[in-house]
């Protein structure tokens, strides 16, 4: 079974006022101290190490001082992935709490913020090169890594999953507010990312050589610094033998993240089988996929999505059911079908992150309450685990 892991980019906030805080350096120091103490005590636990893949989870820095990133160890079973997500959200929350800071799994800040760049040469280069675009940039994604056997298989996967990634975005949408305003989008993060020159869907590559040639050309252009700034909505990971699906907003809850990750793994497995059988990748224009991504970010689960097969708008849940039919055999083979089915039923009843944020604002009238609720949800203990 293909292993999978998840990276989550989350906000650091004043839990009382909801304002983002530039506290990443302090939080990371506390996280490192906690990790060292756990290693010394022999308390490091988790799924077994898998050679060639990130062997353990972590709390790490990101582009902005107002955010941190967690990543899980690779897992083959969804129960293990769920435990890893709870564990590393918990580690981030505990380290932040020691600094008097809250952690919020929100893909944009509902309240006004002046983002502060993290002090690394790479991030300083990005801010100098992209100027206002970089200075205003503060978004959080959920990046799902799924193992592949080779770059050739990985590119075969990328060519075949590209048509489904707008649907993943719509499901995960968790960023309706920006700088104190309702944007009218379910995922305004997706809109912000379009300002980056390398973001979004690509044409079909056809081969690993073509993929790597494009990345080299982008680096040589000096528009991006290195291959890590090829911010495609799905790409070959730099450090791990994985496809990295980057389309999703950071999810409001662990259970939402698990559903998104399971669907991504099923998409990768289905696409890999099609590639191995020599089946042609869907011939859909990148321009249409950009429109589909815009529509998914605009509507989320509250309206219509573009059906890539026809290019026409369809009810969002009809498109999601089409996705579920497409990956159903892979979900069943992995033992994930029931989890995904139940998760989608729950999301249909309760809404995704964007729906919940707007509902809470309608109830209280205060954007600070949206952040406070996210801090509480993000810090919730794993069910069945003693706190």
Automatic annotation (TrEMBL):
GO terms for molecular function: ligase activity. Coiled coil: none annotated. ATP-dependent carboxylate-amine ligase which exhibits weak glutamate--cysteine ligase activity. The keyword Ribosomal protein does not apply. This is Putative glutamate--cysteine ligase 2. SUPFAM superfamilies: Glutamine synthetase/guanido kinase (SSF55931). Belongs to the glutamate--cysteine ligase type 2 family. YbdK subfamily. It catalyses: L-cysteine + L-glutamate + ATP = gamma-L-glutamyl-L-cysteine + ADP + phosphate + H(+). Its EC number is 6.3.2.2. NCBIfam families: gshA_cyan_rel, PRK13517.1-1. Signal peptide: none annotated. Keywords: ATP-binding, Ligase, Nucleotide-binding.
């Amino acid at each position: 079974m293909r292993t999978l892991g998840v990276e989550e980019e989350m906000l650091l906030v004043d839990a009382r006022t909801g304002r983002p805080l530039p506290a990443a350096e302090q939080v990371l120091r506390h996280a490192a101290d906690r990790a060292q103490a756990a290693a010394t005590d022999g308390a490091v636990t988790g799924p077994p190490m898998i050679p060639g893949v990130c062997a353990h989870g972590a709390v790490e820095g990101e582009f902005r001082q107002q955010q941190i990133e967690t990543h899980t160890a690779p897992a083959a079973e969804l129960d293990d992935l769920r435990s890893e997500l709870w564990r590393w959200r918990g580690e981030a929350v505990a380290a932040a709490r020691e600094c008097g800071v809250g952690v919020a799994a929100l893909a944009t800040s509902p309240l006004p913020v002046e983002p502060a760049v993290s002090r690394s040469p790479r991030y300083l280069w990005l801010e100098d090169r992209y100027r206002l675009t970089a200075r205003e940039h503060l978004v959080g994604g959920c990046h799902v890594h799924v193992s592949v056997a080779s770059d050739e298989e990985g590119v075969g996967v990328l060519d075949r999953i590209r048509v489904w990634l707008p649907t993943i975005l719509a499901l995960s949408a968790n960023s309706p507010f920006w700088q104190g305003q309702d944007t009218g989008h379910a995922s305004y993060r997706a809109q912000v990312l379009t300002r980056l020159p390398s973001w979004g869907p690509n044409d079909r590559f056809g081969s690993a050589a073509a993929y790597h040639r494009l990345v080299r050309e982008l680096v040589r252009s000096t528009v991006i610094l290195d291959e890590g700034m090829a911010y495609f909505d799905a790409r070959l990971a730099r450090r791990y033998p994985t496809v990295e699906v980057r389309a999703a907003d950071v999810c409001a809850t662990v259970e939402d993240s698990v559903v998104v990750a399971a669907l991504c793994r099923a998409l990768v497995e289905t696409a890999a089988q099609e590639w191995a059988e020599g089946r042609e990748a869907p011939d859909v224009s990148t321009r249409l996929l950009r429109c589909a991504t815009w529509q998914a970010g605009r509507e989320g689960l509250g309206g219509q999505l573009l059906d890539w097969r026809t290019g026409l708008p369809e009810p969002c849940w009809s498109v999601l059911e089409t996705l579920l039919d497409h990956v159903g055999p892979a979900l069943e083979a992995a033992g994930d079908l029931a989890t995904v089915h139940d998760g989608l039923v729950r999301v249909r009843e309760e809404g995704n992150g964007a729906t919940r944020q707007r509902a809470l604002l309608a109830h209280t009238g205060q954007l600070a309450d949206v952040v406070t609720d996210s801090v509480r949800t993000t810090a919730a203990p794993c069910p069945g685990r003693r706190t």
